Fold this sequence. Notes:
Blueprint: E1 5-18, E2 21-34, H1 49-56, E3 64-69, E4 72-73, H2 79-89, H3 105-108
Antiparallel strand pairs: 1-2, 1-3, 3-4
Amino acid sequence: MKDSKIVSINGLVKRFSIGGGQFTALQGIDLTFSKGEFAGLVGPSGSGKTTLLNIIGSLDTPTEGSAIVLGQSIGELSHRQAARLRNESLGFIFQTYNLLPVYTVFENV
């Protein structure tokens, strides 16, 4: 049977350098999303939700651990490969959509 995992996160850590120090945004995250699953990500402000989505969406890379999306290791993708993955295979639905009212629907997309 073919592996149905589309996202596999193992031991994920993300740190940011801030003012000569380190801020840990994600620590030891393990999760799997399988084909056909619907998932919601909830938590208090500052809990790392956006950071996790940025990594899954190939906008950022892990400091430690692995993030495999559709069989591709996010931390090993070139900028061009990450852009292609986002363009051809990924989509997110956000709570707010931030459209600009002065633009048409086509221009907003």
